[in-house]
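Q: Got a minute? One more chain.
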Amino acid sequence: MCGIVGLHLREPALHPRLGELLTGMLSQVCERGPDSAGVAVYGDPRMSPPELMSVSLLPQGRSAEQVTEAVAAALPAGTAVTSFDGGQTVVVHAATDADALRGAVRIALPAAVVVGYGEDIAVLKGVGHPRVLAEEIGLVAAQGWQGVAHTRMATESAVTPEGSHPFSVGPGQCLVHNGSFANHATIRRELRADGVEFDSDNDSEVGARFVAQQLAQGADLEKALRLLCERFDGFYTLLVSTRDSFAVVRDAIACKPAIVAETPQWVAMASEYRALAGLPGVETARIFEPEPEQVYVWRR
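A: Always. Here it is, folded:
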């Protein structure tokens, strides 16, 4: 089942409304996945302050204040660390590079799970009803140029915060998925043989790790998703985002629902049209279903 929504804003005047619009979209697909949910927000100055590196993590019982203090102690003296409290997720920020901040998190909080990192990105997710999680996060107040969200109905693995979407395993990258990968165990073994580590048993994480590996090896997002279509068996709709891109692809049969709406002001994707119906100007949008195995990419 599962529900996907995503919004890419072309018009800067709409950036202050990103959270409001994304919350409205998410609320329309809750029954598709009441187990858990998550969002990735690009460009919110509270969640991911500009010019700072951000790392989103599941703190395993630590408060945001405790996380902030622990990470600051693991960085060079004088490095200022701040955080955003997203309920089940905490996002820490510092003026350092990604490897240094992730390394400090691992040293200070070895039990914590990093669920996203990069510039201008915050990944917030957890177990529970999507509307409740959206309220915990304060999603309605979020700003930015892009957001993706997911509601999960678990089929391949346990209902845990680690198993919820988005899966963000490369710098600024996110993947949300409706469907299932039939050969995920085979590809997981291949990736592990290449040194890739996993945080969950979720088949969607395998897709995210595969895409991240392709991007790290120099492929662009379109090529990475074409390669995924060649290697993965199953039924799926994927929405994949980076700091500057927003992409959609479906499997060869395209049995999982997906609809895209596009205007000069924004591009949006959802599992159902009703999630798009409240967007400004939708009545004049170009609306279509993505074709099977065709990769659609929009960029800033």
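A: The mean pLDDT is 95.
Q: Perfect, thanks.
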